[in-house]
Description:
The structure holds three protein chains of three kinds. Chain B is of the alpha+beta class. Chain B has nine helices and 13 strands. In chain B, strand 12 (325-328) and strand 13 form a beta hairpin. In chain C, helix 1 (10-23) runs parallel beside helix 10, helix 2 (37-46) packs parallel to helix 15 and helix 6 crosses helix 11. Chain C is globular. The interface between B and C is large, with 29 and 43 residues.
Amino acid sequence: MCLAIPALVVKRLEGDEAVIDAGGVRKRISLALVPDTVEGEYVIVHVGYALSRLDPAEAERTLALFAQATAEAGEQGA
Amino acid sequence: MSRSKDNYGRRLDFRQGRVDMAHGAGGRAMAQLIDELFVAAFDNEWLRQLNDQACFGVSAGRMVMSTDSHVVSPLFFPGGDIGSLSVHGTVNDVAMSGARPLYLSASFILEEGFALADLKRIVDSMASAAREAGVAVVTGDTKVVERGKGDGVFITTTGVGVVPEGVDISGDRARPGDKVLLSGPIGDHGVAIMSFRENLSFETSIRSDSAALHGLVAAMVERVPAIHCLRDPTRGGLATTLNEFARQSGVGIRIVEQAIPVRPEVSAACEFLGLDPLYVANEGKLVAICTGKDAPALLEAMRAHPLGRDAAIIGEVIKDPDRFVQMQTSLGGSRMVDWLTGEQLPRIC
Amino acid sequence: MKYVDEFRDGGLARLIADRIAREARADRRYNLMEFCGGHTHAISRYGVADLLPAGVNMIHGPGCPVCVLPIGRIDDAIALAREQGVILCTYADTMRVPASNGMSLTRARAQGADIRMIYSAADALRIAQETPAREVVFFAIGFETTTPPTAVVIREADRIGLGNFSVFCNHVVTPAAISAILEPAPQARDGGSVRIDGFIGPAHVSCVIGSRPYEYFAHTYERPIVIAGFEPLDVMQAVLMLVRQLNEGRHEVENEYTRAVTREGNLKAQQLVAEVFELRRSFEWRGLGELPDSALTMRQRFERFDAEQRYGIVYRPVPDNSACECAAILRGAKKPVECKVFGTVCTPENPLGSCMVSSEGACAAWYTYARFRPKAAAPAAV
């Protein structure tokens, strides 16, 4: 229901504003909901606001899980 | 240079002047506009005669005529403007029959108050595009409407050309077993325009792909005279053109997502806005359908041309009484590529 | 795009598909509801159903805020623009939704109403600041993902004392919708029901609310819930995780989208929302009927930003076409092709009910992406 994309915070501006880069497209958005974000971090952006930070380690872990060749019950917990 | 003996008094002020109702009234002001702007920019033997029509000889063969109105907003965008768009658009429509475009007409509906500086910029852009394309703007018309009744400027261009013998290209000629070819990455024009729209402003280096394609078409037809279908996927994008072919020819079409070139930035912009690149407008691309046997040669001819460097075979024509267009997705599943519903709008959901 | 393309890899998709095929038992069906319109869209657009075994039945739930927005509320928005002369700012998703009397926001704009499409709530605030002589109303829709931005702009409007700005609030909440699926409201028209074995939980709603709120449902109704990202590999992995839970007789909340979702969620966003909004006692959902504690309105402190109070908006419910089967489709009791008006009278161009209104509704998704599939191949999913 909620179109949101991962984007790189390239520059923090005044207040809670920041410039993000997603696949080469740059836009000014608000970090009001994740005010402690620093440049170089990835965030999930929805309607011009970052909703949460994206955890690169977890992203790698998830991809590794997809690629697991064995069918053991190695699920991620809540 | 004007050959008229009329004395217009002061020359048109292209820096600060504005269009007013007199410029469309048929009198001296209009004559001056035509003389100092249109004739000066397009500058050819027909216009210099200052008749209401242009007279030209025709070679043997079948003639092709096409017309297009241009209402794009914004008027100026990365990679072009309404002027160059109007020339390329009509040149391309004529070229999609396999014809060589020869002459254009250009009609302007101007809004009272429109800046002459902008008008000159547009007309110069048209002249430049026409020269590059090797076509002459031989006749035209100018009207002015009251302030508030136009969007700055509307341009209608009509083009004529001649189809060589032995070439019969039409949307109803696709047959099961044919291959579908695309000349390059899709979505550039639509994204470039969107990036300039108010309330959607985002920064991107994407430029409109607006270009005259008749040179590419000529190279293609020379290599494979028996091309079945050609069309440039403008409004409604690739998806619309494929659905049009399917409907006209009474066939189905199956394309492969992995084979369709899309620039990463265009892809990213579409992700941002919730758009599907398949439906985004292009102004410098074409779709071709030919027999499976001819496809490799046609692809080679396309790739040898600067405007077809990234050409690809993207799918095939199949038997389908329902005339659906289907796509094998990058995931390996399949989905339909339906006709566009309404206008493509960005979404939050 | 980083963190997007990798999660669409066809090779990995096949690996996960193989595993699902191996682990899904042949002697049972797995009725899995993906709750969120974004998941519906991902499944249809990538043809995920083609990679799932026949026994896995994907059902599209009501997680599409445009789909569940009642016609009467769109009528109210249109009236604000036409009769009150406000500048109505809206997300583009609502523009083409048909309202009463053949009207829509698009048609109203064509007839001269000042309706503007915006990308962000911040744009509505900006327009209000730039046009102090005009009243500006922001038509706010969305689940918990979209609510925090609205809270931010209301607080900002309050801080700067903006006098010409208000919000027509139609924000709804996810747990209420899950309840409605698991325990249908008595007055909802219901063509029957199917037992939903498990849920794929919404991705970005969960970024905000965390995974914790789902624990109540998993525990009370004994159904597994897996929160999944929006990319097709996320969805497929979540299907695998649900199949495993069902095979093992577990009913837990699991999180596939760990790269963006935590158990607690975004506390700052939750706090901002709690500061500005409170729950309405009841709110009508198109296709689901009146649901208690399911939608938000402004707290008293911010009520001057409430367009309903400012303009005295009176809500008049508008019933759906009697042939519409959305109520049953939203619960998975019927498939789109089982609705008599599907694809004939009711199409994306002329939607009669909530499931066809937005491109992520079950009917719209099937019509747009999947109707080329032979009807005889009983649609297991879109």
